[in-house]
Write a structure and sequence with these properties.
By secondary structure, the protein is mainly α. It has four helices and no strands. The longest helix has 60 residues. 4% of the residues are buried.
Length: 120
């Protein structure tokens, strides 16, 4: 299985190897290895839910498509979130800049008024 399809699982769980999990789902493990994987799955609720969801997909090609689609969707949502966050940064910082400019203008105007009053 290409490594690109395993991106969605990368760094998601340090207790179980991603390739071992994919082999478990494909039914390529021996009984002893399968038992070890099931024990690790039972210890981790997130992996257990993921395995339950992925087991509903039939066929190896469908599993690869689902993993690729999940990975693509995840990247798209992360890009959207980053874009929204970047837009929000500018909006959040506009008010302090406006306040600073207003204070500087008031200070300059005050200086000019005081300067004119002293010279008259």
């Amino acid at each position: 299985m290409p490594d690109d399809l395993l991106n969605i699982l990368s760094d998601s769980n340090k207790d179980i190897d991603n390739q071992l999990l994919m082999d478990y789902l494909a039914g390529k493990l021996s009984a002893e290895q399968r038992h070890e994987v099931e024990k690790q799955i039972a210890d981790n609720e997130f992996v257990s839910d993921a395995v339950d969801g992925l087991e509903t997909v039939t066929g190896d090609k469908d599993l690869q498509k689902v993993v690729a689609q999940l990975n693509s969707s995840l990247h798209k949502k992360l890009r959207q979130k980053k874009t929204r966050k970047d837009k929000r940064k500018w909006k959040d910082q506009a008010w302090p800049y406006l306040a600073i400019i207003l204070i500087i203008l008031l200070a300059v105007m005050s200086f000019l008024i005081i300067y004119k009053l002293r010279n008259n």
